[in-house]
Design a protein that fits this description.
The structure is a single chain. This protein has 149 residues and is an alpha/beta fold. The chain has four helices and eight strands. It has one domain (4-14, 22-147): Phosphoglycerate mutase-like (Rossmann fold). It has a six-stranded mixed sheet with strand order 5-4-6-1-7-8, sandwiched between helices. Helix 1 (29-45) packs across helix 2 (58-67). The longest helix has 17 residues, at 29-45. The radius of gyration is 14 Å and the shape is globular.
Length: 149
């Protein structure tokens, strides 16, 4: 099996109150609806994660819980991560598996741009699918819920 990477931004989230900390934000109803749609698209394409690295924020953990069953590791450093941190994380993903990295913008957009060499918009619940090749990562596709059937 090839080594594959899914970079996913958390689903749509909101603020419950003005005093709420950013780390504690949860998904909106829209976010709770778009996550299973993205899960279905991943399954249809055969991109089922074997494991995942998930930001410690409430909205990423909630997105993960609605996506599909898979082993996960909560990684606090993904929250507000810079590109160097994200590159270190993907440098440690297991070979011959499909790994999901579930995080935030601007980190997701920066990581996708760094790996693919081009900018791709990552609205909520977007997934960028990469295949590892000898000379680096190849972007297979970007899935956005707004473009799903």
């Amino acid at each position: 099996m090839p080594t594959r990477l899914i970079v996913m931004r958390h689903a749509t989230s909101g603020w419950e109150s003005p005093q709420q900390a950013d780390h504690d934000r949860v998904l909106t109803e829209e976010g709770r609806e778009e996550t299973p749609r993205m899960a279905q698209a991943l399954v249809q394409l055969g991109w089922i994660p074997d494991n995942s690295f998930v930001s410690s924020s409430a909205r990423t953990r909630e997105t993960h819980s609605l996506l599909m069953e898979m082993p996960s590791e909560i990684r606090p450093e993904i929250y507000r991560a810079d590109i160097e941190t994200l590159l270190q994380i993907i440098g440690k993903i297991p070979a011959d598996q499909t790994t999901l990295v579930l995080g935030h913008n601007p980190g997701c957009e920066l990581l996708v741009a760094n790996l693919s060499g081009e900018f791709h918009s990552m609205p909520p619940a977007t997934c960028a699918l990469f295949l590892q090749e000898e000379d680096g990562w190849k972007l297979e596709t970007v899935l956005r819920t707004s473009e799903l059937d």
